[in-house]
Inverse folding.
DNA sequence: GTCTGCTACCCAATCGTTTGGGTAGCGAGG
DNA sequence: CCTCGCTACCCAAACGATTGGGTAGCAGAC
């Protein structure tokens, strides 16, 4: 811990103090293995490093990037950080970026197209080296523009064909749930499917449907309800589903834990006991799931790793490497909300 | 929406194109009301602005701050963004900062002292203009160091005597809960008090105790359990409290919604029906509270505003204004979890 | 004795803005 | 005619780091 304010001492100061030229000091402090490579005499290098440490020298990043044209800044855009899922992914991002000596800006777009555009412009006007986009919509028009403008970016959480992304294998996640519910004897099921513009919602739903049908089950279109990713959305959707007495399901798959929690509320209000009368399974296994009064079954997705992978991918892109999208495998955590056999009616 | 990458056109380019000097262009584009004040002829100013807009000129912030010694960057440090409370406050920060043309870095410190120090250093090495500290510990040693180093900063969410902060009036919040529980007939109560190093925990607890005692109630030390701010912590604390058969309370105040949710889980496991056998009240009124199977009573704190106020305060400090801490008033939202009369035993 | 190759440096331009200090040109007042 | 005060600009020096291109000095080879 230095006791002075960073920025008070510059490269030039160091150089003057030691009777060297700033460029020499720069090379010593910056070059990694240049010590022995004609950059400077080992003794000099040591002197420089010692002084730098002693006076708490820290290079001015704006000055450096003015010259190098790289800011070591990454922009992250998410729908909202108050969505626990994105917040956790961001923790992974922060960690990985920090390790690579990058800093991150993060902004909320509320999944609003105009806001997305605005935030992107703000990020670019800050001259970020690249973007991590966590709010991609399936009609990826903004992404095409970014490509044209040659802005380096990768997607996170939501995937769009043609762009590299770090996501959970949502299709598999949906399939795991279908298998689980089928195994427990459920034949009439519904899905609270999330927002249609999000690949997470679409893939989890289609993964679920495909597997369920492959097992011999039937899911009519009417059993799929698209709704916002939050508790309110889940509650309303579940209400609709459960009030349809023609076809009341014995199990509901909500593609998001918060929607699942809302669904539990709706079930409760209708006098259904979740975990006995009705099975509910969520997605993401947020920290709440296991702690609810009736513990919620959920698909655990490696959120931290998704964030970290997104950074790795973006750094790859910046480095002009060939990068491949990564798709991390989820696992199913069965808990009280669905841990029972459906007895034939 | 420009179709080129920001940074491709500079002040010098604009000047050359118009046959002007870069400094003239700078003054026109930067000066607010300088148009008529001898800075430039109105016609010229218009030409400059038109061209700037047309070619999508956006000034290079690193170059500007190299010269001006101000980065228009704010650093925000929070325990964890995956804590909904801080995430929402951050949304307020982002909004207010954006309005003032500042950008924000946010980092998680996990309430770990070493990490707090590290993150502060990272922020300072990025040359932020100031810091918003959302993870202050009551033994504010780091803060003293920052003061000595003349780093501009303000506190958010947690207050420490002697430093300016934007917080909820936690003492009042605690008092509101005490009054409510007392009014409903509860005489034996317990508090899940949170972490001792956080002013939020301490103030909410002491506000509660003071009011309860002022009303004539008794709260022994043993009725106060300090625990982490999450579901696990709340669950464990509630378990301890409820298993103490010598003094089983009819109501529990958890200073945080997540802890309250954990407590609900514990109550449930012990066969107690929250909202009939046991009253539980949380704090912050996070979006989940109202949607839980048994809706949770909670003290609503103006989280967004706290974030916004923190930015205002910090900008004030940067502007060398005299600033006063702000303390926003909370309100109590009574819901099913505590909306019943305690009948005398 | 010259040339080559190496070490250990130095020099100066450059990145894009900002800003204190000019100055040319013009009309008006004395 | 000189001076004053405008207006509408221009000039150049910063800010701090980076980097391509030197160069002085020395050792060894031919």
């Amino acid at each position: 811990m230095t006791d002075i304010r960073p920025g008070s001492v510059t490269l030039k100061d160091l150089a003057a103090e030691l009777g060297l030229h700033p460029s020499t000091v720069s090379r010593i402090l910056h070059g990694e293995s240049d010590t022995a490579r004609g950059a400077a005499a080992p003794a000099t290098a040591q002197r420089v490093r010692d002084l730098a440490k002693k006076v708490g020298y820290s290079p001015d990043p704006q000055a450096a990037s003015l010259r190098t044209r790289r800011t070591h800044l990454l922009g992250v855009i998410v729908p909202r950080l108050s969505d626990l899922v994105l917040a956790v992914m961001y923790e992974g991002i922060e960690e990985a970026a920090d390790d690579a000596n990058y800093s991150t800006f993060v902004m909320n777009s509320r999944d609003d197209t105009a806001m997305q555009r605005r935030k992107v412009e703000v990020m670019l006007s800050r001259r970020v080296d690249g973007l991590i986009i966590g709010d991609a919509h399936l009609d990826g028009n903004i992404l095409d523009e970014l490509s044209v403008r040659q802005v380096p970016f990768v997607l996170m959480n939501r995937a769009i064909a043609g762009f590299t992304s770090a996501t959970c294998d949502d299709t598999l996640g949906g399939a795991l749930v279908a298998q689980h519910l089928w195994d427990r004897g459920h034949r009439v099921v519904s899905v609270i499917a999330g927002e249609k513009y999000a690949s997470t919602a679409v893939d989890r739903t289609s993964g679920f449907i495909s597997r369920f049908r492959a097992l011999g089950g039937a899911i009519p279109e009417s059993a799929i309800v698209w709704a916002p990713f939050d508790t309110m959305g889940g509650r309303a959707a579940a209400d609709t589903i459960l009030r349809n007495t023609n076809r009341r399901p014995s199990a509901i798959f909500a593609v998001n834990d918060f929607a699942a929690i809302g669904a539990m509320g709706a079930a409760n209000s209708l006098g259904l006991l979740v975990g006995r009368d009705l099975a509910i399974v969520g997605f993401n296994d947020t920290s709440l799931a296991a702690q609810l009064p009736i513990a919620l079954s959920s698909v655990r997705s490696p959120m931290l790793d998704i964030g970290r992978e997104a950074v790795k991918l973006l750094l790859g892109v910046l480095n002009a490497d060939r990068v491949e999208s990564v798709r991390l495998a989820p696992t199913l955590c069965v808990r009280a909300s669905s841990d029972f056999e459906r007895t034939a009616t």
Q: What stands out?
A: Residues 170-302 of chain B form a domain with the Rossmann fold fold (CATH 3.40.50.2300). Residues 7, 10-12, 22-23, 26-27, 30, 59-60, 62-68 of chain B lie near DNA strand C (CB under 10 Å from a C1'). Chain B has twelve helices and twelve strands. Chain B has a mean pLDDT of 93.
